[in-house]
Every structure is written in structure tokens, then in C-alpha cells.
Design a protein that fits this description.
Length: about 400
């Protein structure tokens, strides 16, 4: 072999059958091969196991798919390049022209935009409701044949908790599928409910370290097999290296999640005692409107907290800027704490009715609580509240 051939066909290293890597290596290969055309054909006809092209599947992706399906308590999973791709491609694959979708004002904004702007353009109609209005969901289902009910629980950012068993029961009764974006609750929650399709942003709690994007769709095998055919065409596949990082992040998922919940509870209890904090929403507090419902349907309460600051938008801006352990940033569920002030939370495309449903005001602040020491976080909040109050007094 001449050098130019050797670099194109490097020596093959095989690992003996009785000897294996403890951590699965990354299959950083786009292509897979058999020695015979017959075996390649058998794979393409689904008559044998194996891999062909990483856009469709890859051993590194398969390991993560199996882990995630197991955690959510379903048969099958497929991975996408981001959470948004998981949400949007599953809606595209499940709907056709003329179908009707029910969605909610309290949803993650890109999901709402996909339904209102993109699906609408392809002839998929929708009804937008408040997630609090379960009777409205039932009336809509009774009046309009519906393909899909797309919802979240808790909702982002104001943490309204959906009545998952009622919503899935009425959807089933009227022949609609349910698609639950389970990102905020986490993959260990809601598996006991009759949800048809779960979607997750793996970018959040699941990878946990804010260094990788990914998404997952999780359902029974029949639905995933049907979606997989379309997904391979859409092409928003997860990269094997990203899958490896997500699999690694998952090892500490429960440790992180538990610590984040403890920290969030400590902060919520502190914040609720402060006079300048209004409308505090944390599902773990008895004062949360759906505390009992959350207790009944989730194992824990998550790491997101929202509240309004009495001083209004400028006090909220100053508060966010004065924090030193919380960064002003998008995303959530990572090891580090984050804050979003009202200037970065308020939807710009809502009518007054939808603004009321969304419950986001011009002084709403959202916190995503990390794994830092809870005392350090409380002290940081305390000094930022003082800084925000000082600015208000000086300004008056
Ligand atoms: C972040 C998020 C998404 C989108 O996930 P990306 O990985 O950022 O594309 C979808 N739904 C919810 C509820 C989210 O919080």
C-alpha cells in the first residue's frame, strides 16, 4: 500500500468478543458496510440488525435511544439535532393538510410559532386556548375533529401545571393524539400517563451541562417506526459526538435534578418571604395554585421559579444585572443558575386575551436554578434585591 492508500484505508482494530470498553466508544462514522450485497439488501428490507447510514441510525445514537425510552417508560425513541427539531418534525410527521391541532398560549414560543405560522401555511388548522381551560379543550374536541393536542407541563415560563390525566382522557375519547413536551418536568416524570408522544429538549436537564443541543421523540414502537421513515428524510439527525456527550451527561441526571429541586425549594421559600416579590410561582410551594395536582402527578417540582418584582420592569432589569451567580441567558435546567428579566420574556405577538392567559407581566422574572450551594444563591438574590431597591429609591 502506498501512503496515500494507507491514509484512506487505515488498519482495522477489532476488539475480541470477551474484551470490551466500559464506556461505549463514539461511532464517529457516517457509513457502515457489509462484505456482501446480499446482507446489505437484507438490512434494507428490515430482515436483519445493523447499520447503514448515520442519518438514519448509528450505534452511539441507538444506545441513547434505548436509555431514553427506558427512562420515559416507552418502547422506542428517535433522536433529533435539537429539541425544536423533535417538536416540529413530530408535528409535521403526524399531521397532514386539513388536520386540526389544539395548542396553548402558555407554550414555548417557537412551538407556538411553528403551529401558527408554518403548519398554518401547509393547511393545518389550529385552536389556541389556555392550558387552564380543560373544559374549552373538551368543547373544541367535541366540535372539531382533531388530530393532535400539543401541550407542556409545567408550562414555560409561568409554570402552570396541566391536568395530564384529564387532558389525555378527553383526547382519547375524541380520537385525538396527545403530544406532551416533557422538557420542564424531566424524563423521569409523566410516564404513568396515557400520553401518545413525548418530546424532550435534551439540551436542558438531560445533557445538563449547557454544551450540547439535542432532541428526542419517545412513543410506542408503531408511532416511532412511522416517524422514523419521515425523520430520515427531514435529516435533522443528532450527531454521534453530541449523543455521546448527552449519554455522559445523563449519568448524573438524577443527582443534578435532585440538587436543583432542593436549591429551587430553598430559594422559593426565601423569595416568598420577601415583600418586594409578588406572584411567586413554584409548584413545590403550597401557595402554588396547582400544588396538589403537581404532587399527584410528578415525583418532584423542578428547578424553575417565576415571580413578579414589585418595582416593575426597571427594578427587574436591575435585579437581573445585579445577580452574579445567575447569568442572563436563555435555556434552562443546566448546572449553572440563569435569570431572564421581563424584557426578554414577554411575547410580542399576543393579543390582550393571550397576554392574560400567558400570565407574563412587565415585571415577571424567571429563574433556572443550578447545582451551586443554596446559601450562596440566597445571598446572591438578597444582594440583587437590595441593589434593585436602591436603584428604585434613587430614581424616585
Ligand atoms: C428549550 C425548549 C425546547 C427547544 O429545545 P432546543 O434544544 O433548544 O431546540 C422545546 N420545548 C421546551 C419546553 C423547551 O424548554
Amino acid at each position: 500500500m502506498k501512503p496515500s492508500t494507507l491514509v484512506t484505508h487505515p488498519p482495522h482494530v477489532t476488539v475480541p468478543d470477551d474484551n470490551r470498553a466500559l464506556v461505549a466508544p463514539i461511532y464517529q462514522s457516517v457509513k457502515f458496510t457489509f462484505d456482501s450485497v446480499d446482507e446489505t439488501e437484507r438490512l434494507s428490507h428490515g430482515e436483519r440488525e445493523g447499520f447503514w447510514y448515520s442519518r438514519k441510525s448509528n450505534p452511539t445514537l441507538r444506545q441513547l435511544e434505548l436509555t431514553l425510552a427506558g427512562l420515559q417508560g416507552r418502547e422506542a425513541c428517535l433522536l433529533t439535532a435539537s429539541g425544536a427539531a423533535a417538536v416540529n418534525l413530530s408535528m409535521l410527521a403526524l399531521c397532514k393538510q386539513g388536520d386540526h391541532v389544539i395548542c396553548f398560549a402558555e407554550m414555548y414560543q417557537p412551538t407556538r410559532n411553528m403551529i401558527l405560522r408554518v403548519l398554518e401555511r401547509y393547511g393545518v388548522r389550529h385552536t389556541l386556548l389556555s392550558i387552564d381551560d380543560v373544559d374549552g379543550i373538551e368543547r373544541t374536541l367535541a366540535g372539531t375533529p382533531t388530530r393532535l393536542v400539543v401541550f407542556e407541563s409545567p408550562s414555560n415560563p409561568v409554570l402552570k401545571v396541566a391536568d395530564v390525566s384529564r387532558i389525555t382522557a378527553i383526547a382519547k375519547k375524541h380520537g385525538a393524539l396527545t403530544l406532551l413536551d416533557n422538557t420542564l418536568a424531566g424524563i423521569h416524570n409523566h410516564g404513568q400517563f396515557d400520553v401518545d408522544v413525548f418530546v424532550h429538549s435534551l439540551t436542558k436537564y438531560i445533557s445538563g451541562h449547557g454544551d450540547v443541543l439535542g432532541g428526542a421523540v419517545i412513543a410506542n414502537r408503531e408511532i416511532i417506526d412511522a416517524l422514523r421513515a419521515d425523520m430520515a428524510i427531514f435529516g435533522a439527525s443528532l450527531d454521534p459526538h453530541a449523543a455521546f456527550l448527552i449519554q455522559r451527561g445523563l449519568k448524573t441526571y438524577f443527582l443534578r435534578y435532585e440538587r436543583q429541586c432542593q436549591n429551587a425549594m430553598a430559594l422559593a421559600e426565601y423569595l416568598v418571604s420577601r415583600p418586594e416579590v409578588l406572584e411567586l410561582r413554584y409548584p413545590g410551594l403550597k401557595s402554588h395554585a396547582q400544588h396538589e395536582l403537581t404532587l399527584a402527578q410528578q415525583h418532584d417540582f423542578g428547578s424553575m421559579i417565576t415571580f413578579d418584582l414589585q418595582g416593575g420592569p426597571e427594578a427587574a432589569r436591575r435585579f437581573a444585572e445585579a445577580l452574579s451567580l445567575f447569568s442572563i441567558s436563555a435555556s434552562l435546567g443546566s448546572t449553572e443558575s440563569l435569570v431572564l428579566p421581563p424584557q426578554l420574556l414577554q411575547p410580542r405577538d399576543f393579543d390582550p386575551q393571550q397576554i392574560a392567559w400567558s400570565a407574563i407581566t412587565d415585571s415577571t422574572v424567571r429563574l433556572s436554578v443550578g447545582i451551586e450551594d443554596s446559601q450562596d444563591l440566597v445571598m446572591d438574590i438578597e444582594q440583587a434585591l437590595a441593589a434593585s431597591a436602591a436603584c428604585r429609591i434613587k430614581g424616585q
